[in-house]
Amino acid sequence: MWGAPEVGLFNLACVEMSRFYGIPTIGSGSTTDAKGVDFQAAAEDTLLWLSVAAAGADGLVATSFIDGSPGLFG
Q1: pTM of the model
Q2: Residue 62: inside a domain, yes or no?
Q3: How many CB atoms within 10 Å of residue 25?
Q4: Is residue 74 part of a domain?
Q5: CB atoms within 10 A of CB 22
Q6: Contacts for 37 with CB less than 8 Å, ≥ 6 apart
Q7: What is the pLDDT of residues 33-67, one digit of tens each?
Q8: Domain total in the chain
Q9: pLDDT band per the 50, 70, 90 thresholds, residue 7
Q10: Is 30 within a domain?
């Protein structure tokens, strides 16, 4: 589940924990379950990036994973 809404929540939790402990954070995003470059991919990527930015992460980093990039992991 690469583009699920829960990914954004995990990013928010990690940013908040890092802020509590006083360490810099880098949030990740730009992942999608879409089968190609389309509206679904754009919407999921944008919402993940916005969730990390809204949480106040010090940096944003990720590569675009389309369909979870199955060839990359198995």
Answers
A1: 0.65
A2: yes
A3: 19
A4: no
A5: 6
A6: 66
A7: 777 778 887 887 788 888 888 888 888 776 666 66
A8: 1
A9: confident
A10: yes
